Description:
This protein is mainly β. The protein is built from 3 helices and 48 strands. It is flat, with a radius of gyration of 27 Å. 38% of the residues are buried.
Amino acid sequence: MxxxxxxxxxxVFFITSIYAQEKLWEKxxxxxxxxxGWIKQANSGIIVAAGAKGLxxxxxxxxxxxxxxxxxxxxxxxxxxxxxxxxxxxxxxAPVIGKIRGIIVNSSNGDxxxxxxxxxxxVKNYTTVPDKGIILFELLKAKTRILMSFxxxxxxxxxxxxxxxxxxxxxxxxxxxxxIDHGPYFNASGHVIVGIKDNIYxxxxxxxxxxxxxxxxxxxxxxxxxxxxxxxxxxxRKSKKLLVLDPxxxxxxxxxxxxxxxTLIDITSDIEGNLILVETEGFNIxxxxxxxxxxxxxxxxxxxxxxxxxxxxxxxxxxxxxxxxVALVDKKGGKIWSSNVKGYAYFVxxxxxxxxxxxxxxxxxxxxxxxxDVWKKDVKFKAIPAVTxxxxxxxxxxxxxxxxxxxxxxTGNVNLFAEDVQLExxxxxxxxxxxxxxxSGYLIHGDQYISLLxxxxxxxxxxxxxxxxxxxxxxxxxxxxxxIAGVDFDVEGAISNxxxxxxxxxxxxxxxxxxxxxxxxxxxxxVVAGLYVGSNAENMSTIFEVTKARHTNSKEIKGHxxxxxxxxxxxxxxxxxxxxxxKKTGKEDAQIKLVDKTPNYVIDEIDSVVFVNEKNRLISxxxx
Length: 624
């Protein structure tokens, strides 16, 4: 599930002292809810409060109660999640009589747009498909998988379809990974195609009936739908046959010439719509117009793992735990060059100067002409480096293991600008991310860490804050290890840095701009998602809009970082505080003191407001 949170939510401290902040409003909910168990914030900004007498929504600007549903008692805080780009959220509650129910609520008015009632469904995941005007929700009923289509036009369930049972032991967390392994795709008729384990389902778009189902003898490793020839390509684990199905009827239309020489690794496509078939014995190009291989002989390198299409041809990448290789192949299947790579190459991407790679042993750039090292000396990263982009210098900034590097994507030049940088409490295994601060330098930070490195390599400040007594619920800014990306090797660091590197490298000019670079906020708004009704573009009525000002993660657009810290004292009891740390100076521009061990507050980083639940009934808003 792709859920980009706009908030840091979390915990449940009873607040005894708040100082140096402007109180915007205060509301006593004892009459309405008796006791407030928890508060959250919806995408639209509305504060959702759960209590003994139901669930209600409050205007985050004024504190006014907008809606109150007295039937929704015993709502589970851990089940709450916002649906990206929409003013909808999901929660589960236990009615006095009946089974646990899951509901989807319109945060603007409190309307329940979907209710599992006593059917026993729980929402596991979702995929928003704006161009089709639907959300596909993945539900579980005991061990039964259920796919539900929810209309963005009517805000109602249109259909649901059973997709078999989950095998094995107990199911893990209800909001864990999607049970859909491939897709959803939509064939020429608009029907939904999904791949789950060893099954392919094609579902009628209007009523949810299964049109056809195909079962393979082993788990499906690759499933690709080609719009050019309206064909579905299926790769099965350890199979030596590529299966091609008619996506409309499920018939086997595999040409006799598409036989594998080894076992399938992946199927991808290039910008021309050709299919790249990657197998253990090499890769080849399938012409979708004829369903035949373009090359008489597949191109092979040891430990072939990935193929990247490029304007100069194809970049073939071999990966093993000790040694790998990178090769540039022309569009006729001939080798231009091949180079060995020491260690496991977990990041390989083309840039204007050549092929940039980072492995567990070394990193360098291989030039496009001969595949020779561009850098005379390797740059070695022991962990995944923190990454950002300096707009003024037009360079990528990499920081890892006390060293900072400036990397020019256009020329391929790299220089060490900071060395032996001592960050407080930071180890090599500490996951860190970076952010460019215009006019100041590079913020190197994590959940409890914040440091600023100047463009000249000087450490302006470095701080570590002891985490609160319980941070198990904290949404970390970084994910640890390559195992999350399906790699078994233990490389520590923030996996989000690899994604950022890919984003930077994807821009051929080397220029890179993102909301993460705009630390002073934005004066304009753009619509992330909306729902409109009308006969044509000139006669449309707005039902709702969610704008970037409300939806974007404000850590990327504000000049402060919010940190929750624990403070110990020899003369006073241990207490907690919420800090608003200035990214440029490292100073604590504002703070709220908390002392209880059971937190209950929400930090709205977009509007720089903290909402606190005092005495389990009093909701107050304080301006940072």
